[in-house]
Design brief:
Layout: E1 2-8, H1 16-30, E2 35-40, H2 44-48, E3 52-55, H3 91-101, E4 106-111, H4 113-124, E5 129-133, H5 149-170, E6 173-178, H6 185-193, E7 198-200, H7 208-220, E8 226-231, H8 237-240, H9 244-252, H10 259-271, E9 275-278, H11 291-309, E10 315-320, E11 323-328, H12 329-332, H13 344-352
Parallel strand pairs: 1-2, 1-4, 4-5, 5-10, 6-8, 6-9, 7-8
Antiparallel strand pairs: 2-3, 10-11
Bound molecules: 6-O-phosphono-beta-D-fructofuranose (F6P).
6-O-phosphono-beta-D-fructofuranose binds near residues 112, 135 and 181.
Length: about 350
């Protein structure tokens, strides 16, 4: 008997179900032994508190196109891993106990950066763990791509497209805030795909004067509207010069809901232009996976299952230079993948005339 556990951890995304379908279908087809699947509910919480469902092949049928996660998810912050739960439970010990009690051969963990750190810890504690790179943010180190990314780029791009028509009708400046946590992958890709005039991302600190210049130049050239795409983690040059502690203090003291409001206020102060803010928010994680995500999720799921059948644990499934592979968890856990400010897409966008606010 091959006994495997499955869990989805952290923020959800469109291609989690498609990935689990890939894992389970492959195990059922390729395993020489009968397979038992334990689906843990709400991420690591299910493993801590023994909340699971016995599942089989049929439970994963029809999931290729279904967003969200049938298992549910939650965040179990890595930095609090060794802090007992409110009821006194030792999280790491409880997870190990559940794994051993159910006599699992392998745990598949679909999660982003924080969750991968926990997966690495469990692997170091002796569990057989295989991680799969989930996140709309595409910031997982060690893989070119994460599942969820292209679907969220699609949603964000559609939002920019829709704003374009109304912005041009009214001759307004629009500040559109796009998710991505501490990195700028979604705003960069959606900004280019949506034809933004300005893209502000955390990796390229901006000077508001450069943004104002774009708006004024466009005015002079007869373009009555400007689309400014702002990453939720965008920072100015002054903010980038602060220490991490000082910057955290600044963010904590923010009186506006988010960075888009601060940037819109600055533009308003300096130009007096009519400005609107649009924030697609969690729609960027919702709905169906796009075709690219369905394919990548399937590849990740299949490779994870094959890795399990070969007994290769302590790894994350990845794509490097277009090739599917496994990377050791200890090499990737705790690191972030940032946009390269000198990378091709940034260079090409700049050549086209898109401003990143840095010059
Ligand atoms: O990591 C995915 C993500 O959507 C980020 O882009 C965003 O910063 C965060 O999660 C939002 O988290 P929550 O769902 O907890 O509001």
């Amino acid at each position: 008997m091959l006994r495997v556990g499955l869990l989805t951890s952290g923020g959800d995304c469109q291609a989690l179900n498609a990935t689990m379908r890939g894992i389970v279908k492959t195990l059922y087809r390729q395993s020489k032994e009968p397979v038992e699947v334990y689906g843990f509910e709400d991420g690591y919480q299910g493993l801590i508190y023994e909340r699971y469902r016995m599942m089989d092949n049929r439970d994963f049928s029809g999931l290729l196109t279904r967003g969200g996660t049938v298992l549910g998810t939650s965040r179990t912050p890595f930095k609090l891993l060794d802090t007992p739960e409110a009821d006194g439970v030792n999280k790491v010990q409880a997870m190990k106990d559940t794994y051993r009690k159910l006599k699992l051969d392998c745990l598949f963990m679909l999660g982003g950066n924080g969750s991968t750190k926990t997966a690495n810890r469990l692997s170091q504690e002796g569990l057989n763990v295989i991680a799969l790179p989930k996140t709309i943010d595409n910031d997982t180190y060690g893989t070119d791509m994460t599942f969820g990314f292209t679907s969220s780029v699609e949603v964000a791009t559609r939002c920019i497209d829709e704003i374009h028509t109304t912005a041009s009708s009214h001759g307004r400046v629009f500040v559109i805030e796009i998710m991505g946590h501490k990195v700028g992958w979604i705003p960069l890709y959606a900004g280019v795909a949506g034809g933004a005039d300005v893209i502000l991302i955390p990796e390229i600190p901006y000077d508001i004067e450069n943004v104002i210049r774009v708006i004024e130049d466009r005015d002079k050239a007869g373009s009555r509207f400007t689309i400014v795409v702002v990453a939720e983690g965008a920072i100015s040059k002054e903010e980038a010069a602060l220490s991490k502690k000082e910057y955290k203090k600044l963010v904590a003291a923010r009186t506006t809901p988010s960075v888009a409001y601060d940037i819109a206020a600055e533009i308003d102060k300096r130009t007096g232009r009519e400005i609107r803010i649009a924030i697609p928010g969690h729609t960027q994680r919702g709905g169906q996976p796009d075709a690219q995500d369905r394919i990548f999720a399937t590849q990740c799921g299949v490779e994870a299952a094959l890795s399990c059948l070969k007994g290769k644990y302590g790894v994350m499934i990845a794509q490097v230079n277009g090739k599917m592979c496994r990377v050791p968890l200890e090499d990737v856990a705790g690191k972030l993948k940032y946009v390269d400010p000198k990378g091709d897409l940034v260079k090409e966008a700049k050549a086209l005339g898109i401003s990143f606010g840095d010059e």
